[in-house]
Every structure is written in structure tokens, then in C-alpha cells.
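Note to self: user wants both folds in one dump. Writing first protein now.
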Amino acid sequence: MLRISFRNLWEHKLRSLLLGGAIVTGVAFVVGSLVFTDSLKAGFTDLFSRAFEAIDIQVNPAVDEDDPLAALSFGLPTMDADLAQIIEAVDGVAEVIPEVQGFMNLEPLEGELPGGFGPPSIGFGWLDNQDLFTIAEGEPPVSDTEVALGASVLEERGLAIGDTIRIGGTGAFQEFTVVGVLQFGSTAGATMGPRFGAFTFATAEALFDMDGLASAFGINVAEGADIDTVVEELNLALPDEVEAVSARSAAEAQAADLQEGIGFFNTFLLVFAGIALVVGAFVVYNAFRVVVAQRTRELGLLRVLGSTRGELLRMVIVEALLIGLAASATGVVVGIGVAVGVRALLELLGSGALPGTGLVVTAKAVLTGIVVGTVTATLSALLPAVRATRISPMAALRDQVEVRRAKPWWLWAGLGVTGASAAAVFVAIAQAKGTAGAISGNADPVTLAGGAALGLFLGFFLLARVLARPVIGVLGRGMRALTGTLARENARRTPRRTATTAASLMIGLGLVATVAILSSSVEDTIIEAVEDSFSADVVIRPSGFNPLAGLSDDIHPLVIDSPGVASAARLNLAPAVLPDGSPNLIIGIEPETVELAIAFEDVEGAWADVVGDGVAVQRIAADNEGLALGDTVEFEFASGVEDFTVTAIFDLQGNVSDSQSYYVNYHRIRELDPTTPDYSLMVRVDEGADVDLVVEDLNEILGDFAGVSASGIESIVAQVSGPLKALTGMVAGLLFMSVMVAVVGIVLTLYLAVHERTREIGLLRAIGMTRQQVARTIRWESVFIALFGAVLGLTIGIFLGWGLTVAIIGDGAALTIPWVWVIAGFLGSAVAGVIASIIPAHQATKLDILEAIAYE
């Protein structure tokens, strides 16, 4: 039986190749994600190990993971610089190296939007005995007006040694001369993530307002001292909010943090690997089901010759196993190339250069890829293999393959699964509209809708066997030519085969449509919400990496006196633990300017009463917590627990929920923490004034305040929509791979169908059908199957896109169907069908008429 398995694979090389191709993509994504992750881990671990070679111990501010407010901190942690005296007094400590760092603000380039997204820019004080950085070119800074910058910053701005650049910290912009090129550790170019700048130590202290503070301490121990023992002694001597760790542990922790920061790429790859494997599994299952049906007589003869059911089962399984092994081995090689591509993509997107330690291909990654691919192929062939064992010896006497009709239970099972899944989506929509979507922190509707999506695909797969005849009948109703009619009936007379073949395309295109509709709807909803949520014409806010850095108190009077400005509303904020136990931000408003500060509607109570301990609550939060006017709400601030009375309940304009749902008086926030700065200023321009000119004037006035910028609403919308469009394009591109696997499935099915209909095609040729007509028949059949899959996929995609949009956004979500994408998907499926028919059509036209008629 093993020899027969090898013979079948060898004699049907194209079939075996196409079967393997359906598995290769999924395995490649699995292996690519594992190789990329392993390479990243090894590269960063090696990088930080080299960077920390100059010290033995690192002292950092400790992160209290039990403190819920710690998650709301965007700034860089600091500690008292006087701790150096405590550290020096510990036995075994030979040298203490203080470190200061902060977020630096680079003056925006001409035409560059202030703020925005991307890696942070971090500046630090240079010390000759510091450990993390070296100078790759030029010299370290020695005066208050010199800076050494990372290569990524210089390249981005077209600067070189000797050029000048304006940089600010917590104060005004200052002009610096570039004197050196920074290099992270000893690995050239490994500056992935933040952008770095080095100043003299004194300059950094002043620039980031770090006088009397330190970001960390590097420690070298005395000769002969045990590092772990010194670490223990330091942790006993230092206060609880400070932690000492060995340099080795610090290197591993920082490498893990950076790796986690881009870990979403790994998750993306694994998700798409799963999708590609599911689609490939459908292809393999359908192919083996058709092959078993075509070999009914052959298998029947084997039964006549004495083969047992177990031997037939093993024969089919062995074929799938061999294909899985070969495809998995190929997928491993392709996966290594995927890892290289992901690395290049990250660097292209501006994440900086990754550590150049090369790819790390572990035995675990290779073994996982081979196991995943082989198991997928084998399990996909299991049901057809079991069916092979049911073939009786009498099947050898039949002249043709029995065509099995779809059984009625498929209809009822499909309706049941589809109905239950659709009901779950409606429940998720009701939950999101009744409470809040994922964007407000409620993940339950998304979880329910995501689970229902799996059920919908399964339900439609079951229904496809019943829907194939009527839907393809409708798609081909206008066909008058003989070739089109034959193609339509060929696709309809084997609904199980047609449905299974179309299922792979249904999954791929359904996911593409879901993502397209979801992203368009979310993007339009968010952009509309952004536009609706601003009553102001201009927003002034921190433009650096830390959105909570705040604004100087000097800015508000300058803005009020600026030409073209009619009024300005101040907002501040305070981190707090909400009544539901979650950490969030409490917004401070001035009641007299609240109509400018936020856009709202349907107010119950009065904003004028938000004074003292009064609080205004967004209605969706009030409903969730069961709050009414006059109720008491408890917030836990850093300074302690405070009680507030609900004096107003409101809806945001556009009926879109927001995660910040509690608003108290601006001056009450200042009472809780007098150092609290303004979070933003909302500005209304004079009637008839040009908003762009006012923005330009304000930015000129704010030029002395580094990290602060004025933006029109259009600029804010552009900042929000840019990353959304980039993410959508990346996801759609990866999902397109699953559509390509589905096309392979159509090629394979039609290839097998041509072989099955050899005698039929020969008879058609004998009675006068030309080669071109035969090719057109195969081509139209492929198009009908592809369009059938497209109809099912787009139906699922539109429904799921709507459901997931509401589950994410909640109230106020709007369905936006990108009809260009939908139409392109439908027409693209027809084109895919034409492409998929090339090989089967060519095979059909090569049949010899006499040999075909003499078949069997």
C-alpha cells in the first residue's frame, strides 16, 4: 500500500504540487513568526548584554504593579538624586554613575504636523563612563550648546555633524550643534524604537528639569564582591519605590520590553497563519474527497484483491502525510523569507534598525512548522480516507462515479448554526448599544461577535451545499451560449464539490470584506466623532510623546490676547480609580466655558452646578453604574479617596461614547494637586477669521514652549486617519494571501474535474465542440464557482463588518460599506476564476478524442 501511495503521488505530480501549495502559506506564516520572534529576542538580549557590559548593577524607580494608577503614567520615572549617598555607603559598591533622561521635543519640520504618532524622542545626559551608548562618529557633547544624535534622527532630518537643530525639553526650544552620531551599545545602527539625543549632563538636567533628580544609577562593584549579594544589600538599604537589579537582569528586562512593544507583528502573523491553514485545510479536504470519489473503481478493485479497510485508510492517510511533510519543509524555507520580510517592513515603517545578529532558526520553529503543516494536511484528509474504507468490492463493477446529492440534514444543520451565530451577533450589537463598545473598555460585545463569526463561516459552509444550485442558477441565468450553459450545469450538478471548493474563497474574501467594512466604518465613525467632539476651532495641546505632559500656565493668557482668538477654554485632568475599579482620567472643566471645551447634548441637571464636589457624568457611564442626579460617586486619587455628587448627566454630541466619562470642576483638580498643569486649551476664533492663519500665529507665539502646538481640526483628523489607513492596508494585504490559497483550491478542483470528465469531454469533442469551446466551458465553470464563493463571502463580510463595528464603537456607530472594495472583490473573484481555469482548461484541450471516448 505504501508503494501505491508513492505511485499515486508521482503519477499526479501537478495535483500533489497544488495540494502542497495550499499548506505552504500557513506553515510559512507560522515559521516566519517564530523565527522573527526568536531572532528579535536573541538580538535584543545580545544588544543589551553588550550595552550593560560597563556596569554590574542598575538601580531604577520600582514599578508598583498593584497600583492601578501606574498604568496612566506616560512620563519617564525619576527618583531622588541624593539616593547616590545611600548607594555609595553599601558594602561592595565601588562606583555610582547617575543617569538623567527625558522626552526631548524636536522642532517640527516645515509642513510636518505637530505631535502625531511614532517612537518617542529621548534625551539624556552624557557621561564618559556611562554604559548604554558610544559615539560612532564625531565627538561627545562637551558644551551646553552641543548634542550627539542617533543616526535615525540625522537621516530623517537630513542633518550631519556641524549642522544645528532646535530641541526643547520642558521649557523653550534651544539651538544645538550636532557634534556626534550616537550608537546604541556596540552594535552599529541598532537604534530600533526611540530616537536618542545626548547632551552634557548639566544641560540635560536643565533641559528636562531634573535638578536633584535621577532617572537611574549604574553601579560597579568592588573587585571580589558578589554582585547578587550587593543587589540584596542595596534593596535592603534603598526605599521601596526604588529597585536594584543586576545588569544581566536589566538587559533581559529591557530586551523583553522592546520585544513586547512590537509583539503585535508576531500576533498578526500567527492569526494570518491560522487563516491560511484553515483555507488550505478546505482545499486539501476537498481535493482528497474528489480523489477518493474518482478512484472508487480502483479502490473497489483493491478490495476485490483482498485489501482491508484499514489498508485503504492508511493508503490515503500516507498520501496526505507525505504531501504534508513536503509542503511543511517548503513552508519552513519560505517562512524564513517571511521573517526577513517582516524585519524589512518594520525598518521601512520607521521603527529604526533592528539588531544585526542575523536570523535565529531554532529546532522548535522548524519542528513546529513541520508538525502544524503535516497534521493539518493529515486531518484534512481523514474524512475522505474514512469514506474510502466504506467502498465495497462491488464498486469495481460500476462504469462511472456515483454523484452524491446534498442531504437534507445539511440544510437544517446549516440553518441552525447560521441562525444561532447571527443571533449572537445581534445580542452583541444590543449589548454594545445598551452599554458601551470596546472603545470604551467593554470587550464583551467584541468577544461575542468574534465567536459568532466562526459560527457564521461554519453555518454558511454547511448551507453552501444547498445554496450552490439556486445561486449558481441565478448567476448564470443570462447565459445563452452553449459553453456557458454547460459550465453552469457542471457547477450545479455536483453541489457538494462546488460548495467545498467555493468555501475556501468564501473564507478568504469574507475576512477581507469584514476588515474593509470594519476599518472603513470605524475610521469614518471615529473621524466623525472627532469632528463632532470639538466645539472649538483650534486645539492647543502637548505635541510630544507624552500626551499628559501638560501646558505651562503662561500659555493661557498669551492665547487669550492673540489676534483672531475670541475665547479659550482650559481643561486639566487627574488620574483616579473609578467606581468600577478601573483606572482612568477625570477631566477638569470650567462651567462658564464648558460649551467650548466639549461638544455635548441632552443635559440632565446643569453644568453650572459642577462646582466644589459636583461631577458631570456621561450618560452611558451613569446607566452602567446606575447613577442619578444627587448620587454620590467615590474616586480614589493619588492623594486619597474623595466623594463627589452627581450634578449633571449628559451625552456627547453624535451619541458616541468616550472612555473619559467623569468631569469635575477645573479648580477642584487644582486643589487636589496644585502642580497639575492644563491638559489642553480649546480655542474659538473670531467670526470671519481664517483658522489656518490663527493656527499659524498661535504656533509662532508658542514657539518658545517646546512640545506645545496649535492644531486645526483637520490636522487632528489627519493624525487619526493616517495610522488607521496604514493598518487597514497591512491587514488587507496579509488576508489577500488566503484568497490566493483559495484560488489554488479552485485550480486543483477543476484539474480533478477535468480528469473525472475525460470521457464526457471526449464525446463533446467528437460531436463537434472545438478546443476553444472546451476551454471556455472550463473557464466559465471556474468563474461560476469563484462568484458563488464571492457572494457567500461578501454576504458574511457585510454582516460581520456591521456587527463588529457596533461592538467596537457602541452607540453612534455608522455602517460604511466601501462599495469600491466590494465590487472589486466580486469582479476580482471572477478574474481569479479565469486565472484558476488556465491549467485545467489547457489540460482539457490536450485530450485525445479517441482515447477519451475509449476511457474505461
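First done. Writing the second protein, which came from a different request thread.
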Amino acid sequence: MTRERTGPSLAVMAASLAAVALIGAALAVPAAAGAATGPAGPSGPSVRLAGGEPSVPEGASITGPTDAREGVTADVALKPRDPAALSAFVDAVSTPGSPQYHRYLAAGRFASLFGPTAAAVGAVRAWLASSGLHVGPTSPDGLLVPVTGSAAQVARALRVSLANARLPGGRVARLAEEAPAVPSALAPSLAGVIGLSTVAQPQPQIVLGPGTPRPVPGPRTPVPHVGPVPCAPASQAGGYTADQLAAAYGLNTLYGGGLVGAGQTVGIYELEPFDRPDITTYLACYGLSNSVTPVPVDGGAVGGQQGEAALDIEDVAGLAPGAAIRVYSGPQIGSGPIDTYSRMVTDDVAKVISTSWGLCEPQMATQPGVQAVESSLFAEAAVQGQTVVAASGDSGSSDCYVPGADADPTVTVDDPADQPGVTGVGGTSLLAPGPAPTETAWNDLFGSGGGGVSSDFAMPTWQLGPGVGSALAVSNCSALGRTSCREVPDVSASSDPARGYAVFFGGQWRVAGGTSAASPLWAAMTAVIDQGLGSPAGLMNPTLYGAGSCAVSPFNDVTVGNNSFLLAGAGRYPATPNYDLASGWGSPVAARLLGDLASPPNCPVVTAVRPTKGAPSGGNTVTVTGANFSQATSVRFGDVPATSFSVTSPGSVVARVPPGPAGGTVVDVTVSDPGGTSRTVAADRYAYVLPGYWLEASDGGIFTFGHAGFAGSTGGTPLNKPVVGMAPTADDRGYWLVASDGGIFTFGDAAFYGSTGALTLNKPIVGMAATPSGFGYWLVASDGGIFSFGDAAFYGSTGAIRLNRPIVGMAATPSGHGYWLVAGDGGIFTFGDAAFYGSTGAINLNKPIVGMAST
């Protein structure tokens, strides 16, 4: 096997920026990239922050200017010094097989390696101080600089108009009518100003059960269980108790092995307070002794309870009886929600974080900058080994819809479950608990599990496997004007409030559900698994999708139901075998999941079929030259005679290939003359390859069928990026594999002519084709950009065209003077001498097109 010559490992990429040694290892990460530190005074040149234009909700009305004396607290958010390098490190530390897999940053290292430079932070602080605002302590990672002042001071410093607006529900909120103005030299370092608007309020994803008490359908059947046992009032409350849930998802198996989450800390994100007596009563019911530590942020949460905090805390305590719990609670408006996430990540005490609060994606536009800062914080969590799980919403595929409050039917998904650095948790109806649970996608009068395609995030590279990229998902992604969309949820668990969880809230036993229940369930299970792993699981998504592709997966596959809560046609996402937009991969089988996280399975997905150039029905001809024969009496392909042949000129014989010949994979051509003299033409020049084909997998594993020969693979080699294409050499005695970064692997007689491995690509490579001579090849990216190497000529591309669907493959013409590109909808693009013969571009496909081959 010949290794990739110029494929970009994280270390190579980082070294080109500046290598930094991590603790006890030669992990290379990028050093500081220059941040803008020019004039920062309020009188200097300024610009309005791009993307900072606020969105006013439909139906809202401006009631007048904000009182000039009103206090305003905001965060000026900075970007990481090199977002691309941070993203690459997240991939490396979270992807099985990577040399950096699970080699997390030590606490406190993020700021010096990936945070904004000290110069950038200092310049921002100096500007804010000179503007007359009170500047608070910078967050430990350098991403947030808090400021306070009166509305008049903030408006003057940022050159915005602050106004009050009455929202459709009657609440009066503050908003900025323009994007903030900042010094032009600092603008490239800034992600936004958070807290000027109080329009958006993350909502809890809890749904209280229909009446109290209400029995679970059917008798409460005792289940085999090791672990905490509920008291009688909990058992009689009408919802599933912790022991039943533990049995349904296999946690009792882990309890039996001594795994209870001991030594682990779960952080719970809250924007409402909780009553300590409620929690004490629940713990006493089960005989639990979990420590529950409140961590107030920005003064702590205010207002009344909706039961969210009680559900989250009790869910984790009942299912991870040995884990410590830290409840981070902050205000629901302004900068409170982002400050609470920041504190959880920068504390880096809880290696598992659960959030059951969210907003639908369209509403994120009312608070510019928040989504980008969330992404940075979740990337920071990933490189530190923190797992973040988030509820996917309770309104099905129409996430903005709030019964009785907001009738918005928009088909969309929930933030932060949509974030690639988060494991989004959807909802099921647990019809019967026990070791083999019966589940459907949750969808009833009380709500439905959130799921669909993101309009804000592209599909991550790890989001692969059977069911991912369904025709409906691709269609709805295209309708959003995107060529690639993150799909949600990743996993799911019991959420139906009609068969909810027994919790103690407001001084009584209640039944609660919603994806708010599923998220802390996954958090508790992850803490128990972390104890078994002996280290944090970190960002689990790459492993979850790899394991889900296996024949035996760590999930209970949910195949019944859908999550179209409003019966919206565009959002009618059905539960199907394998991955789907209603339930993700399904609910957990805890013991299998522990095994797969401890030793990630290698279950590659077949991505292409490549035929040999053999002719199974005959009819092809081979011209043999250089044999120096003026006559010929026979031509044989190995041991098989040609069906016909002729001498066209001295030394040139044209022979017809026999139909379906038998013999070796590569055969010599032998020509004999009337005197009995025979000349064998070497196979490396005039080989005829018998019929067959190769299957190429995403790990570079090669499967051969018919007479296709095996020349090697990357099947056991850790790859930086998955293999996405292959091309055989002219004589089929070798082949090239190409990875999504354009790194080339050569096998057999395939020669290396170059790669895009060291380039920063706008879009990933999705396929390749070889020239007829075998002395070159083309690579194609998902936007149809073409890269040519060796004797491959450039004939055009779709790189500058807005595509309805991304390009997924290419094929060269027999002459090598042109090529076809094919998109995911089967649309065909022709270049050079490639002719158009038709396409599926106008057909509604059940599944997207994934590749092509020419005759």
C-alpha cells in the first residue's frame, strides 16, 4: 500500500500555522492567528457588525423607546482565534481512529490555544471602557466580555436605538433597531453583542402529564432491576419510575456491574429556580444521596417554576445514583442564557451537560451572535471532553409552534439540539418497559418529538449511515436554499407525557414528559458509561453514527409513527428502519453503547461500485501492437482463445474478446504465427481484465467480486477523512482511493500525480475519475469544482453555479476529453465531449443519487 502523499493530518495543518505541544504528547494545535488590534477609541472609524441586524417577530409592535435609565447587561462576544483549526481539532479528538481521539485538552488550556489573543481581548476591553460602560471580568476562555450601563449609555456606545416592543403573547421586550457599531479594526474579532434584545426566551421542553394521578396503561409490572427502588407514592403516581426506565434501556445491567455514575458530575442547564424540598423528597423516596449543588449565574434564575428543573434533577439522580449534580441556573432573558452555557463550559467540572431549554431556529435571528457563540462554546466543550445533550423540542417537525401561545407552523428544528457539537435527543412513546421496550415515535395530542433538517447548519462529516440523507430530508434541505443540512435528532428516548416520568414537583407527585425528560435520561446514562470507560465520552456523535451503521447497533430502532405534530406535509417525517428524522437512531441499549464507546466498531458504509473493463458478453476488441508478426494463427487471452482476430498491418493484431472468459484477473495476450512461433505481450501493457467489480467503503476497505483483483486497501488504517471515491487504472491492475479532503491513496500499479490534501477546500471532495491512459485523474468537489492532475485536462465545472443539489460523483468519457457530473437529484452536467442522454433531475426520488458510471 502507498500512503497518501499530501493528505492533511491535523498535525501537518497545525504545524503550518505554528505547533504547540500539549501535555505529555506531540499534539499539534494552531498558535495565535493575528487578531485586529487597531484603533479602538469611540472616535475612530467604525462599522456595523455583519449579521447583527435584529429580527422583529411577526405580529410585534414597537411601543416606544426604552427608558434611558433602564439597566442593560450585555456580552461583547469574540471569535476563537482560528475557528477552522478549532473545528479540525474537534473532529480529531472526537473521531475514532484519529491519533488525537479522546486526547482532550486539560482544564484551562483552551484560552491559550484557541481563545482570542490577549491583544484582541485587551483592545476590546479598552474600547468598551473608553465608551463609558462598566466592563466586567472576561470569561476564562476569552470569548465573552460583559458590560453594563444604562440604556442611554449602551445605545450611545454602540450607536443603536433601543426600543420596546409588545410581542404577540403580550410580553413587552427590548430590542435594538440596528446592528451594533464597533471599531472597524475590531470587527473581524467580534462574533456579536448579546443581550441588547430580550425578545427571545429559551423555552423548557417539558410537558406535564394529563392529570394527576393517571395510571400508566395496563398494570405496573415489576421488572428485574438492580439499583434504586421507588417508594410507594412514586410507584402510585401514574408515571414510569426510575427503575422501570433503567430496565427499559439496560441501565440496570450496568448497575449490576457496579457502574452507577460514581465519580462523575452532571451539569444541568436551567433558566428557572427549583425548590430544595422537592428534590429532597425525591431522593429520600429512592434512598439516594446524590449531591445537588446550585451554581447561580448572573444572580441566578428568577420567576416561578414550571417543573423543568425538578424533572431534570430528579431524572439524573434516579438514573445515575452515584453521580454528583451541579445545577447551573441563570436569567431567561438577555445575556443570561449564553452566560449560563459559558459558565458550565469554562468551569469544566461537569463532563456531561444536559439542557432541556431551546428556541426554534427562526427565532434565533432575534438575538444575533448567540448561535455563533453557542457553537464556539460547544466546540470548547468537545475539546475538553464534555458531552452535551439537548432536548430536540416538543412540537414535532414544526418546532416554533407552541400550543396556546404561538401558532407558527414553520417546519424547522430546535436550537441547541441542531448544533453539530451537541447530541440532539428526540422523543418516543414507551408503550411497554422492560428489557425489550416497545416504542413508537412520540406524536399525540400533547406534543411530538422534534426533528427535521437545519436551515442554519450543514451536515457534519460524521453524519453518515443508512437512513441519513433520505429523499424527504434532501428535498426539504433544498427547499431551504441549501445543498447540505444537519439532520436532527441524533438519538431519542421516552418522552410521551401520557406515559411520563414520576417526579416530585410543587409538593406533590406529578407525571411529566417531553424531550425534557429524554435529554437528562441520556445525560444520566452517559455519566454511568463514563465511569465504565474511565474517561469522558466527549462528543459522541461520530461514534454513535458509526455504531448505528453496524448490523448489531447500540439502539432500539424505532420504526413506527412520525413526528408531524401539525400534520404538515413538508414535515411528515416517518420513523423508519435505521436512522430517521423522527427518532434519530432510536433509544439506547446502555450495555452495547458502553462497549461501542469503549471500542468503537468499524462498520464502513459502501459508497461506490466500480466495474472492471471486462466484457461479460464479449464484443470488445483489443489491438495488440509491437508483436512483430506479419501473420497470426491464434490469439489467446490467458488460456482462452479469441473469438476472432485479424492482422491489420505488420505487427498489429486486432482480436475480439471472448464472451465471459474464464481465467485469472489479469491475463497476457499471446499471438502465434504460422511457423509455430508465439509471442506473449506483457500483461502490464496489453492486459485484458475479466468481468467483475469492486465495492469501496468509507474506511477504504475494498471488496472484490467476479474477476476484480485486490491490490490493497486502507481498511485497517486510521484516516483523517473518509474515503469517498475510487478509480481503477487503465489495465485494472491497480486503483486510486480519494478521501473527502482530496488525499490520494495508491494501490497496485496506480501512480501518484498529486492531490488536494494540503489545500483548504471550500467544499469536500466527493468523487474521482481516471483518464483512459491511466496517467492522470480528476477530483470533483460537492460544488462541482474540478481539480485535474497528471494528463487530466480541465473542461469546465459547476463551481460557480448555484446548485439545487450537491454534486455526488463524476465519470470520464472514453476519449478522456470530457466528463459528466451528477448531482444528488440525478441532474447531469456535461463538459468537453460528454453528451447528454437524460437525467432524473425532474423525478421525485425515494433516495438521493450517490454516484455514476459511464458505458
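Dump finished. Worth passing along: The mean pLDDT is 83.
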